[in-house]
Design a protein that fits this description.
Blueprint (H helix, E strand, L loop, with lengths): L15 H22 L4 H4 L2 H10 L6 E4 L6 H6 L37 H9 L7 E6 L6 H13 L4 E6 L13 H4 L8 H15 L5 H19 L4 H4 L13 H12 L1
Parallel strand pairs: 1-2, 2-3
């Protein structure tokens, strides 16, 4: 299956069963190559389904995927036509262990340090391209000051087509610690994509009721906000007026795709 994937668009014709097979082949491929060349194994084994889902929903290279701490981009490289270069991974003149604009039109920055992706993504999002910019950042990198500087700017600039994927597995090289780590660990803040879809449908139905519909829809929204404020403390995302959708299973391709599509609407 993996040998038939030479560009992201090849993924879109595959069934969920075929995607599951493909993900298994990707993990076996990365394990084999990294055991011979060296490199970053665990970060890439953990983002297989996430990367597949991103490339099925977004149209790379028109849409821009920007990976924080770029050593988690091996799966991205595999799906963008670089499988035959992995025998020379991290060798002089061979495949870079990080995103590289010299390698592929699907790479947009050369980055290996933590916490930089949000600033890069904001710059691309504000550059006027008619496309989506997606930053993929881990919970460890999310505790860095540069990430919060970028979030602060994003809250003011409010780019229309910028999405942030927080890959929260509780670890970087070691368990994520520190006062800011709790902001990245957001298991108790949930917005299920099915809830969002149902809310829109019910809202349209209420607004369709003559005379009272619009008022009923607005009242329902105010009640929801009031209950949320009682049950959940405000997060940094609430304060910055950034909509958060999650936490979801990062290995469930169907749910990932549903969530990304919902976030694009």
């Amino acid at each position: 299956m993996l040998e038939s994937i030479t560009q992201p668009s090849d993924l879109r014709s595959l069934s969920l069963e075929e995607l599951d097979q493909l993900c298994g082949e990707i993990r076996a491929f990365i394990l084999d190559k990294v055991s011979k060349t060296g490199g970053h194994l665990s970060p890439n084994l953990g983002v297989v389904e996430l990367t597949v889902a991103l490339h099925r929903v977004f149209d790379s290279p028109r849409d821009r995927l920007i990976w924080d701490v770029g050593h988690q981009a091996y799966v991205h490289k595999l799906l963008t036509g670089r499988a035959d270069l992995f025998d020379e991974l991290r060798h002089t003149g061979g495949l870079s262990g990080y995103p590289s604009r010299a390698e592929s039109e699907h790479d947009f920055v050369e980055n290996s340090h933590a916490s930089t992706s949000l600033s890069y993504a904001l710059g691309h999002a504000l550059a006027g391209y008619e496309c989506w910019t997606v930053a993929i950042i881990g919970d460890g990198a999310f505790t860095g000051g540069m990430a919060y500087e970028a979030l602060n700017h994003i809250a003011v600039a409010k780019p229309e087509r910028l999405m942030i994927i927080l890959n929260d597995n509780g670890r970087s090289y070691a368990p994520t610690v520190g006062g800011l780590a709790s902001l990245a660990n957001l298991a108790h803040y949930r917005i299920d994509p099915r809830y969002e879809k149902a809310k829109k449908i019910i809202g349209r139905m209420l607004r369709g009721i003559p005379l009272v519909g619009e008022t009923a829809d607005e009242l329902a929204g105010r009640v929801k906000d009031a209950v949320k404020q009682i049950l959940e403390p405000a997060t940094v995302f609430d304060t910055l007026d950034l909509k958060y959708s999650g936490r979801i299973d990062g290995h469930d391709i169907a749910l990932l795709e549903e969530t990304f599509l919902q976030a694009k609407t």
